[in-house]
Design a protein that fits this description.
Blueprint: H1 8-22, H2 34-41, H3 46-61, H4 82-98, H5 129-141, H6 147-176, H7 183-193, H8 201-218, E1 223-226, E2 242-246, E3 249-257, E4 260-261, H9 263-275, E5 280-285, E6 290-291, H10 296-305, E7 309-314, H11 315-324, H12 332-345, H13 350-361
């Protein structure tokens, strides 16, 4: 059965116009499926959010598309390559058009829910919330029968995505304003925030904020960049999970792990540092980090053999030292505000933002 080749230029034009409409003052959702759309878009599963928006954009672009298709090889009339549409049209334009309201993922179709030929109730997913989301998505898309319906539904989906993001940011900023305390409160906050890993994001955000505090102590104007987890190195200006620059000069670059790892994982980070012509890599281990095939000494020696100095630190030790010597006037509110801004710029997952808000509420 032949698949449909979508016109990506036409799709981009529809995405742009739909975004303008969805973000216009006074916009009100009008799709008959708006409640199902809102539930999927405001849910915690980022991949299903992308699948929904991609399917609606595809159907709005070509009425012959079957929105239940994920791959061109699906055994459906109207099959198309959803991954290509998402990665070539939505992903590169999401930052500018939507401020990463869908989640800011560089590779949303690499996750398991998007790797099936088509959306089906038979697709293997975890029981509970994921299964309910799949069922809602399937039932919604099978009712989208023409391009007009798809376009209206697409605008509603974009509206709910932007509204969700604004609400998350506003809630965190409001909560930050209620925080009180100095260095002891900061240390307690760090420990509570890192009680969960959430795909390693809590540790990375903490390390970035600690480097910021270290710059304050030294009186330096450091530009600290916290990269989205699993995406560091995607451009020539990104080296590791956290890069610290003073002007054009790279002061520190740090790789952060908060799960069991093997030497090869760290050597990959070392190879990026070596390729960039840098002499040193800081390797920060979060509470759950544990090397399963060697020791710190073997790691540092392997790095030295590659001409790179590897500085291994425990996150707890790093936090104890930097917070202890932070400027006397540094407050928990300032520290949490900076961490929140890194969470926003690094496109932290919804679960991470919810955990951050919970930790702050406990201290407000």
């Amino acid at each position: 059965m032949p698949s449909i080749n979508l016109d990506h230029n036409q799709a981009l034009a529809i995405l742009k116009s739909s975004t303008r409409n969805a973000t216009a003052r006074g916009y009100s959702p009008s799709s008959p499926f708006q409640h199902d759309i809102e539930e999927i878009v405001t849910g915690s599963h980022l991949t299903y959010r992308y699948i929904l928006v991609t399917a609606l954009l595809a159907k709005a672009t070509d009425k012959g598309v079957n929105p239940l298709s994920l791959q061109a090889g699906a055994t459906l009339k109207g099959a198309y390559d959803a991954r290509s549409l998402c990665h070539k049209v939505i992903v590169p334009h999401e930052p500018e058009l939507l401020g990463n309201a869908l989640g800011g993922s560089n590779e949303p179709y690499l996750n398991k829910p998007a790797r099936f030929p088509q959306i089906s109730l038979d697709n293997a997913v975890r029981a509970g919330k994921d299964q309910r989301t799949l069922r809602n998505l399937y039932n919604l898309l099978r009712r989208i029968t023409d391009s007009g319906q798809a376009r209206t539904a697409l605008q509603d989906a974009l509206y709910f995505a932007v509204r969700r993001q604004r609400a998350d940011v506003a809630a965190i900023k409001e909560t930050v304003g209620e925080l009180r305390g100095g260095r002891n409160a900061i240390r307690d906050f760090i420990e509570a925030f890192n009680s969960k890993s959430i795909h390693g994001e809590t540790a990375v955000l903490t390390v970035g904020t600690l480097f910021w505090a270290m710059g304050l102590e030294k009186g330096c104007e450091w530009n600290v960049k916290v990269h989205p987890t699993n995406e560091a190195g995607s451009s020539s200006n990104e080296i590791s999970d956290v890069d610290v620059r003073e002007g054009d000069r790279l002061v520190f670059t740090a790789e952060v792990k908060d799960k069991p790892f093997i030497m090869r994982d760290v050597m990959h980070a070392i190879s990026k540092v070596k390729a960039a012509g840098l002499p040193c890599l800081h390797f920060i281990k979060g509470p759950r980090a544990e090397q399963t095939d060697g020791s710190d000494e073997e790691l540092t020696q392997a790095a030295a053999n590659e001409g790179v100095e590897l500085v291994v630190l425990e996150l707890d030790q790093m936090a104890d030292t930097i917070v202890a010597f932070a400027p006397q006037g540094l407050t928990l509110q300032e520290f949490a505000e900076r961490l929140s801004s890194f969470a926003e710029s690094a496109r932290a997952k919804a679960d991470t933002c919810a955990h951050l808000k919970e930790v702050m509420l406990e201290r407000s």
